[in-house]
């Protein structure tokens, strides 16, 4: 199980710059507070403490900043996911670790959660952004698929599952949990939802002891 490569749209030399990171973090803060469309490059520069012109040394425009947020921060988060999953032996443990790490990552950076979950839905007119988001989703679904297939080999997960549906079920449920937390203002412990989620995945909502209706 290998971590994903850095997307081609990221210039590795840019990534080495402290100002690049500073601008990325400032943009996340401003996008989360004001929304992508209401944000200007000047506001991002002010938050980062740099001159407006400095932004254009690292980014083409505001849309490029958003693209780099998804590319660069997604790489960081996925490295964390893969490392956490790799340290687990069994499939259910891997799934719990993946979900827990995802919820913890967004809980620790609420601004990033807002940008990833909310703003990305508002800025789908960009083909480049849509492609980037689809790539991130594909990587996540691939990781889920590997865990489920391992669970099927171990015998703890059913072999008659429609794998594509399972991937979307897990991804969709996690996204909805994060969205609800964002809309609630982050007022509760997001990471505490990890185990209930995985229990739902593994056991469903049916009662196996219940008798079928006559």
Fold and architecture overview:
By secondary structure, the protein is an all-alpha fold. It has a domain at 62-202: Orthogonal Bundle (Tetracycline Repressor, domain 2), CATH 1.10.357. Helices cover 71% and strands 0% of the residues. The chain is built from ten helices and no strands.
Structural class: mainly alpha
Secondary-structure element order, N to C: HHHHHHHHHH
What's the CATH superfamily of the domain at 62-202, by name?
A: Tetracycline Repressor, domain 2
Q: How many helical elements?
A: 10
Percent range of helical residues: over 70%
Beta-strand content estimate: under 5%
Using the coordinates above, name the CATH class of the domain at 62-202. Mainly Alpha
CATH architecture of the domain at 62-202: Orthogonal Bundle
**Whole-number average pLDDT?**
87
* CATH third-tier fold name of the domain at 62-202: Tetracycline Repressor, domain 2
Quote the distance from N terminus to C terminus.
48 Å
Briefly summarize what is shown.
The chain is mainly α.
What secondary-structure arrangement, pairings included, does this model have?
Layout: H1 12-15, H2 18-34, H3 41-48, H4 52-58, H5 62-86, H6 91-108, H7 110-122, H8 127-154, H9 163-183, H10 194-203
Helix pairs in contact: 2-3, 2-5, 2-7, 5-6, 5-8, 6-8, 6-10, 7-9, 8-9
Question: Which terms would index this structure?
Answer:
Tetracycline Repressor, domain 2; mainly alpha; disordered N terminus; 214 residues
